[in-house]
Amino acid sequence: MAIPKKGTREIRVYNEPYRWLIRKKATYGQWAYGSGQIRLAVEHAKYRGSVLVIYTDRKHPKDWATTEVIPITPSDVAEWIKQVIKIGWNPKINGEQYSIKIKDDGVSTLKSEGKTRLDF
Asked: Cys-Cys with 59: which of 50, 66, 97, 98 at CB 3.0–4.6 Å?
C-alpha cells in the first residue's frame, strides 16, 4: 500500500528519490500512555514497491509525558534509509511492508506480520 502524497517530503539517498511522511495527528497510543514514539513511512518516489515503516526512539510531541522534543530531520531519515537498504530493504520491489525500529541510532528489523495497511 502506498503512502498518501499529501504532506510528504522528498529526499534523495544514493541518488534515488524517496518520499517520507510523519503522520500529523497523533494516534491514541502516541498521546495517551506516556510512551508514544514518532513513526514515519518511506517509499520510493518513482516505483510502487515496498513501504518502509520506521518506529523511532523519539518521543511524540503530543504525548502527555514528553518534556523534550527531538525533531526528526531529513539527515536522520537519509541515514535510516541507508542503513535499511544495507540490511535488505528493496524499495523498488513490490512486497510486504518493511518495518524497522530505531534504538540508540541503530536499526533493527521487526518481524513482518503480513499487514496490508500502514500501521504508523
From this structure: 66
